[in-house]
């Protein structure tokens, strides 16, 4: 079970529409060492590292540690209520899309959420 402080961090924060890069990040609470995984994906990011650098900086200011577990891409079709998670990050490797999709399904319960290891 995540620490109460970790519960304050949203599991998923992604752009509302489009195709964009995403990263799966493990956030650690010090000193207890409890952790949770979060999904972050944004169109503004040219590289997966751009997302990780921004999020890890914000988390460090709040006293958390972070590690990137990998990345990929998300296709978010809000009008059709579909999200597809796929691909990999050249710098961080492939995220476990199954973990990412479970978190996204919880955030978007009325969406069709799928994943694939194919694609870039």
TrEMBL record:
Bilayer-crossing regions: none
Broad class of enzyme this protein falls into: hydrolase
Keywords recorded for this protein, A-Z: Cytoplasm, Hydrolase, Protein phosphatase
Its EC number(s): 3.9.1.3
Catalytic function, reaction form: N(pros)-phospho-L-histidyl-[protein] + H2O = L-histidyl-[protein] + phosphate; N(tele)-phospho-L-histidyl-[protein] + H2O = L-histidyl-[protein] + phosphate
InterPro entries noted in UniProt: Janus, Janus_sf
UniProt KW Hydrolase keyword: yes
Compartments where located: Cytoplasm
Reported function: Exhibits phosphohistidine phosphatase activity.
Family indicated by similarity: Belongs to the janus family.
Quaternary structure and interacting proteins, as annotated: Monomer.
Protein name: 14 kDa phosphohistidine phosphatase
Organism of this sequence: Pipistrellus nathusii
